[in-house]
Design goal:
- By secondary structure, this protein is an alpha+beta fold.
- It has 2 domains: 213 residues, no CATH class; 142 residues, Protein Transport Mog1p, Chain A (3-Layer(aba) Sandwich), CATH 3.40.1000.
- Helix content is 25%, strand content 28%.
- The protein contains 9 helices and 16 strands.
- The strands form 2 sheets. Strands 1, 2, 3, 4, 5, 6, 7, 8 and 9 form a 9-stranded antiparallel β-sheet that branches. The protein has a 7-stranded antiparallel β-sheet with strand order 10-11-12-16-15-14-13, sandwiched between helices.
- Helix 1 packs across helix 5.
- The chain is elongated.
- The relative contact order is 0.11.
Length: 377
């Protein structure tokens, strides 16, 4: 994944720098990635200085599939009267291959991995004629799991939720906002919104406020209209709520924690004081499938069986990549449910002395106790 960015639309250098600064950088004091650049249909419309053309309703979404979900106006913005939606994939005017070359700027493989099957690109413009706009990518996936997984990929983005600038937002479905973006998940849909400005004098504080007043309002309208439910996947619902960080869930339809073929897996991020840890859950449809999931853990080199916990349990060391820290997990299976508690690799800096690391993580006995307590629920 590339670093966070805002969309470039002939933006003056100062404005672009402000947008980038407001959005932050992945892996630093933020989580969440800006949506890929939207493919604009036309330049933003200019309004008469003495009129707000959004009062007349603005433009229209001419795509019959997405039109029922798209609020025509919101927060003083309206659909661009001089533009029209670009549609890709199923029942779209453009092919899914063109998503890769004209809409998602090389990032589409991430979306495709989660089952992307349709994309609509729209733009809202400021009704007062100010040089601001809101870009919208509305993605539909083959499954609810795929859409939810992409949402968590956006808001967690392999970063640390404890150092987030993205915060949960009340969009009638599951939503999140940063200072220049908004995200909405519901059912098989993920909407990603980006505030764009060409105002070279705008401050980061004013940009964040303008984003809230425009992007936030449009995102709330989308969340209320999108079809499908907001029922979380079973593995996510199985995660304990106590001490879980806000928006602190990553969801993997397969391949969670670097384990090929394992999933769907929910990974929760937890914090209590200075101490950090992760909890994982996999809920299978059948016992045999759960046994195969657990087998992927117990076959890891150095795995040690643990007795007296559920149907089977092991102490496992996981390393998601050669440049990632090694994390110790206690993993157990009970029937169709596999659960685990492990180290938070984000605080396991090899340069940090072991004596200091000890205060940042759970002891092995504490992990065992948490798993044992979880098994009793």
């Amino acid at each position: 994944m590339r670093p966070l960015s805002t969309r470039v639309v002939s933006v003056a250098p100062v404005a672009l720098a402000l947008a980038l600064g407001a959005a932050g950088c992945k892996g630093e004091e933020t989580k969440g990635e800006a949506p890929p650049p939207a493919a604009s249909a036309a330049p933003a419309a200019s309004a008469p200085s003495n009129a707000n053309f959004c009062d007349k309703g603005g433009g229209k979404d001419t795509d019959p599939i997405s039109a029922p979900f798209i609020p025509p106006v919101g927060g003083g913005y309206c659909l661009d009267p001089q533009g029209e939606p670009k549609t890709y994939g199923a029942q779209g005017k453009l092919s899914m291959d063109e998503v890769c070359t004209t809409a998602f700027d090389g990032e589409c493989e991430v979306y495709k991995r989660f089952g992307l099957d349709r994309v609509v690109v729209l733009r809202y413009v400021d009704g007062t004629g100010a040089p601001n706009s809101v870009e919208v990518n509305l993605s539909r996936f083959a499954t609810t799991d795929g859409a939810y997984a992409m949402f968590t990929k956006r808001v967690v983005a392999d970063g640390d939720p404890a150092r987030a600038s993205v915060h949960q937002a009340p969009f009638a479905a599951l939503g999140a906002m940063s200072s220049s973006n908004a995200y909405v998940w519901r059912g098989a849909y993920l909407a990603e919104l980006t505030f764009v400005t060409e105002d070279t004098k705008i401050t980061p504080e004013r940009m964040a406020l303008a984003n809230q007043e425009s992007t936030g309002v449009i995102a709330k309208g989308l969340g209320a209209r999108l079809p499908g439910g907001d029922d979380l996947p079973p593995a996510v619902k199985a995660l304990p709520a106590a001490s879980q960080l806000p928006l602190g869930v990553a969801y993997y339809p397969s391949g969670g924690l670097g384990l090929a073929g394992v999933g769907p897996m929910a990974v929760g991020y937890y914090k209590d004081g200075e101490r950090r840890w992760r909890e994982i859950a996999v809920v299978s449809a059948a016992v045999d499938a759960a046994k195969e999931t657990f087998r992927a853990f117990k076959l890891k080199p150095g795995s040690v069986p643990l007795k007296g916990m559920g149907d089977e349990a092991s102490l496992v060391v996981l390393q998601e990549g050669p440049d990632r820290a090694r994390a110790e997990y206690v993993v157990a299976r009970r029937g169709t449910f596999v659960e685990g508690v492990g180290d938070e690799e984000l605080v396991l800096d090899p340069a940090t002395p072991a004596s200091k690391q000890a205060s940042l993580k759970l002891t092995r006995d504490e992990k065992i106790a948490k798993v044992a307590s979880w098994l009793l629920k």
